[in-house]
Amino acid sequence: MKGHVLVAVLVYWISLAGAHTESANNWISTIWDDFKEAVDCAGCQALLGGLKLVAGFGESFMEDVLIGVCDISGAEDSDVCAGVIANEGPAVHYSLSNLKIGSHTAKTFCASLVGLCDYPAVRPYNLTFPSPKPPTTRPPPSGKPPIKVGHFSDTHVDLSYETGSNYNCTKPICCRSYTENDAPGNTTAPCGSWGNSNCDPPHQLQENMNEAIADLNPAFSIYTGDVVAHDVWLVDKAEALQDFNATYSAMETLGRVYAALGNHDAAPLNLFPSNQLPSEYNPQWAYDTLASDWVGLTGIQSVESANEHGSYSAIHPNSNLRIISYNSIFYYKYNFFSYTEPMEYDPNSQLEWLINELHEAESAGQRVWLISHIPSGDPDHFHDHSHYFDEIVQRYEATIAALFFGHTHTDEFQISYSSYKNRNWDTATAMGYVAPSMTPTSGPPSFRVYDIDPVTFAVLDFTQYTADISDPKKKPEWVPYYSAKKDYGSLLDPPVTDAHAELTPAFWHNVTVVMERDESVFQDYWARRTRGFQVSDCTGDCASNEICALRGADAQYNCFVEQPGFSFEKRDGRENSEALWKKKFQPECNHAGMAPLLAKIAYRASLERE
Ligand SMILES: *[C@@H]1O[C@H](CO)[C@@H](O)[C@H](O)[C@H]1NC(C)=O
Ligand SMILES: *[C@@H]1O[C@H](CO)[C@@H](O)[C@H](O)[C@H]1NC(C)=O
Ligand SMILES: *[C@@H]1O[C@H](CO)[C@@H](O)[C@H](O)[C@H]1NC(C)=O
Ligand SMILES: *[C@@H]1O[C@H](CO)[C@@H](O)[C@H](O)[C@H]1NC(C)=O
Ligand SMILES: *[C@@H]1O[C@H](CO)[C@@H](O)[C@H](O)[C@H]1NC(C)=O
């Protein structure tokens, strides 16, 4: 046992005697030392042990200690430290209080948040299906003229965006007058009127994008969530409600829109407890407000269960299509309320509900679209629930036409297989489309339009659109960037170019095979992820891991290894790692709030380690 742990225990008893201010200071240095020593799974567990002791003194004491540690580390400006910790403190306190050091939950925490434990193996869980899988297969395309469907995601409009304010600020997002020096006229780095890559966009970018989508005459659209901006240390319920209203009101010009809940769509962000936790933690106001926005936008009478936890099932009018929107934030590694002892297998029985909905669809001969925010194969998704979800997808693969996600801000896809040991074109069973973001923090703003078979609702093609917002005065012009069939289908052998052919799971598997064979095809895909923005080098292991991730709808097979956030300076030297740090923590969807703050503190601690 390390010396500081003994000190910690001693300090614990002293604090019990009541010397709180002084002991807070002692705890700050103890926890800061724990961060410095957390270089492996045992170190991470020791750190959790220290934090658990601190949590034992109560929520506000724990918050004071964490704020103190954040300040010494210099991970963020101190107002950001204080804001983030005050927002998410109650959830962290709840989960630390109940955590058992060394448990599956604690290891999942250290594996998924900081990469210091190996990811624990998926816990077996028996899903119950009403009947065995029938021999049905995907229906062939109807050959009828396709309909168009828009897909956009991660809008993150910042209603406080100020044209002319500083884009080169010290906060996670800029283009606001945080200080006098950031104000319009006082800065040499003024934001344009349509957005900047260091900022979430102004509302008028969304209005402009909606017009561009409407001009393409979609039959309907899907929106995979994340309304609220990344000023996560400031966002409160009032701001979130204003954001919901502004964003969803603006969508009325689009006609019917089926939407999904994002991890930013509450305040504080990310925290969506299951119904097994005390209801005081539940963002019921967010579920209720979104449900009424969704009912308004879909035109249907009610969206079943939407009021309960942000999921619903709806039949698209006069069609054979059932759209199921589910809450993937229950399975999100930054949802601190998920780290219960033990972790729940099926929070809110949502998986059971999904099975029922899919079963009804199968029995009625309907096709299904599953829409959600976080891709089930994403590194941000818990392995356990990704696997359970994938088992459901496997059971209903003939009914599920496709899955649609957002969250990553990048343009990606994920393929499901009946056997992950044998990932091949003839074992590929389901296709998940991941649309990039409108917020320009990781590439120009973007949306896509699918060509959809009007009978089978299969995806026949899509075209990605982007707009250049770098000219501060020019109105954005939305132009086609690439198309799946033209830019990938033409490369297959035999080529798939028929307008009526489906982009099947086998099609996409074959695209990944071409990527493996032809480096330039992979590089084109890699650049398209960020719409050509700050394209990093990706060859060798980076490329093969990325291809593995595309074939990894069951997250345990996505080849992702969390970088030990606590020690990556070793390879890079300080200067270089500052740059890496900036990149790693740029305000993407998954890089906001308490968890990345802890990782940043850990990174700062690692720089002081000898
Ligand atoms: C799953 O079912 C098997 C066989 O019916 C049983 O042995 C096992 O205990 C069950 N596991 C769980 C986690 O319920
Ligand atoms: C941004 O600010 C940093 C210092 O805070 C400065 O070194 C850099 O030149 C600025 N960049 C621009 C484009 O103004
Ligand atoms: C710009 O800076 C000056 C002083 O440096 C300050 O008086 C003024 O209020 C600032 N402008 C704004 C809009 O904040
Ligand atoms: C919601 O947004 C609409 C359109 O911008 C606006 O007219 C309305 O006043 C807003 N409602 C609330 C409650 O903020
Ligand atoms: C995928 O590749 C296999 C093997 O080359 C081929 O038989 C199959 O027709 C291809 N499928 C599609 C949709 O491209």
TrEMBL record:
<feature type="disulfide bond">
    <location>
        <begin position="538"/>
        <end position="542"/>
    </location>
</feature>
<dbReference type="GO" id="GO:0006685">
    <property type="term" value="P:sphingomyelin catabolic process"/>
</dbReference>
<dbReference type="GO" id="GO:0046872">
    <property type="term" value="F:metal ion binding"/>
</dbReference>
<dbReference type="InterPro" id="IPR004843">
    <property type="entry name" value="Calcineurin-like_PHP"/>
</dbReference>
<dbReference type="GO" id="GO:0016020">
    <property type="term" value="C:membrane"/>
</dbReference>
<keyword id="KW-0732">Signal</keyword>
<feature type="binding site">
    <location>
        <position position="226"/>
    </location>
    <ligand>
        <name>Zn(2+) 1</name>
    </ligand>
</feature>
<dbReference type="InterPro" id="IPR011160">
    <property type="entry name" value="Sphingomy_PDE"/>
</dbReference>
<keyword id="KW-0479">Metal-binding</keyword>
<comment type="similarity">
    <text>Belongs to the acid sphingomyelinase family.</text>
</comment>
<keyword id="KW-0378">Hydrolase</keyword>
<feature type="disulfide bond">
    <location>
        <begin position="169"/>
        <end position="174"/>
    </location>
</feature>
<keyword id="KW-1015">Disulfide bond</keyword>
<protein>
    <recommendedName>
        <fullName>Sphingomyelin phosphodiesterase</fullName>
    </recommendedName>
</protein>
<keyword id="KW-0326">Glycosidase</keyword>
<feature type="disulfide bond">
    <location>
        <begin position="70"/>
        <end position="81"/>
    </location>
</feature>
<dbReference type="InterPro" id="IPR029052">
    <property type="entry name" value="Metallo-depent_PP-like"/>
</dbReference>
<feature type="binding site">
    <location>
        <position position="154"/>
    </location>
    <ligand>
        <name>Zn(2+) 1</name>
    </ligand>
</feature>
<dbReference type="GO" id="GO:0004767">
    <property type="term" value="F:sphingomyelin phosphodiesterase activity"/>
</dbReference>
<feature type="binding site">
    <location>
        <position position="226"/>
    </location>
    <ligand>
        <name>Zn(2+) 2</name>
    </ligand>
</feature>
<dbReference type="GO" id="GO:0016798">
    <property type="term" value="F:hydrolase activity, acting on glycosyl bonds"/>
</dbReference>
<dbReference type="Pfam" id="PF00149">
    <property type="entry name" value="Metallophos"/>
</dbReference>
<feature type="binding site">
    <location>
        <position position="409"/>
    </location>
    <ligand>
        <name>Zn(2+) 1</name>
    </ligand>
</feature>
<feature type="binding site">
    <location>
        <position position="263"/>
    </location>
    <ligand>
        <name>Zn(2+) 2</name>
    </ligand>
</feature>
<feature type="binding site">
    <location>
        <position position="373"/>
    </location>
    <ligand>
        <name>Zn(2+) 2</name>
    </ligand>
</feature>
<keyword id="KW-0325">Glycoprotein</keyword>
<comment type="function">
    <text>Converts sphingomyelin to ceramide.</text>
</comment>
<feature type="binding site">
    <location>
        <position position="407"/>
    </location>
    <ligand>
        <name>Zn(2+) 2</name>
    </ligand>
</feature>
<feature type="disulfide bond">
    <location>
        <begin position="41"/>
        <end position="117"/>
    </location>
</feature>
<dbReference type="InterPro" id="IPR041805">
    <property type="entry name" value="ASMase/PPN1_MPP"/>
</dbReference>
<feature type="domain" description="Calcineurin-like phosphoesterase">
    <location>
        <begin position="147"/>
        <end position="410"/>
    </location>
</feature>
<feature type="disulfide bond">
    <location>
        <begin position="175"/>
        <end position="199"/>
    </location>
</feature>
<feature type="signal peptide">
    <location>
        <begin position="1"/>
        <end position="19"/>
    </location>
</feature>
<feature type="binding site">
    <location>
        <position position="156"/>
    </location>
    <ligand>
        <name>Zn(2+) 1</name>
    </ligand>
</feature>
<keyword id="KW-0862">Zinc</keyword>
